[in-house]
Design a protein that fits this description.
alpha/beta; elongated; 259 residues
Length: 259
């Protein structure tokens, strides 16, 4: 009897097919300009974008109090009444929302230390430039995908979905793929090199048998990587240079995201 081929793919978790973006700035011209830039970005990248604009911090806070959420918020610091720093504090402390990516915008560059606690994605100086906004959006999309993407695989017995953020690493053994997660281990038929072509950018091959999530790396040397579950994985010679470069790049991205 002919075996049914195994299928695996990635997809964004349902309910997030539109990227929800907020703009809060009391300068209507800045809002209109930024809104145009964001919709242009969406068209070029093939991403569905929905933009909502507020001219007051209070109106934005009332919207968020109702339970509505944004994927990314472009927030002016010098709002006329409730300033952007207070709004950011409200989002992080009162709503306990650490998921919304906040990008501050201002005509001044003297606020950096005050923003450290809020952990914005970036700080943009007016007038806003299209290439700078596009760069911010590129980074936001990467972070969004890392948080919200699923790995799907189908066999004759079941169809499974696992968030990539829960996967510590994949490994191949005896023509089977094993997925090691925070809680358990799942096995299915597949080819590791094929899976490596569809995973998010924070997954890398360190060996022909190991595909790891860099976010779960605890310690590393030139030859061995220790994952957060305590497992030691060998880095084979052909992969060592790339692994070292990718680990440094991943740590740099995480550090910049939190500054």
């Amino acid at each position: 009897m002919e075996k049914k081929a195994v299928e695996y793919k990635t997809k964004i978790i349902g309910g997030h097919d539109v990227f929800h973006i907020g703009i809060c700035d009391d300068e209507k011209g800045t809002c209109a300009q930024l809104e145009d830039m964001l919709y242009d970005y969406g068209k070029k990248q093939g991403i569905k974008i929905d933009v909502t604009v507020w001219y007051e911090g209070e109106s934005l806070c009332e919207f968020l109090k109702k339970g509505d959420r944004l994927d990314i918020l472009f927030l002016d610091i010098e709002l006329l009444s409730t300033d952007g720093i207070k709004v950011g504090g409200f989002i992080r402390d009162e709503l306990e929302d650490i998921e919304t990516l906040i990008v501050y915008i201002s005509s001044k560059s003297s606020y950096a230390l005050n923003l450290f606690k809020i952990q914005p994605l970036d700080f943009l100086i007016k007038p806003l430039m299209e290439n700078v906004v596009s760069d911010v959006m590129n980074r936001a999309i990467k972070i969004y995908e890392r948080k919200n993407q699923l790995f799907e695989f189908s066999t004759r017995r079941c169809h499974c979905k696992i968030p990539f953020r829960n996967i510590i690493y994949f490994y191949s053994q005896n023509k089977k793929i094993n997925i090691v997660t925070k809680k358990d281990e799942v096995q299915f038929n597949g080819k590791l090199k094929e899976i490596a072509t569809i995973v998010p950018h924070n997954f890398i091959l360190i060996h022909q048998s190991y595909l790891i999530n860099l976010d779960f790396v605890m310690e590393c040397s030139y030859e061995v990587i220790k994952m957060q579950n305590g497992i030691l994985l060998n880095v084979s010679l052909p992969y060592r240079k790339n692994v070292r470069e990718q680990i440094i790049k991943n740590e740099w991205e995480k550090m910049n995201k939190n500054v």
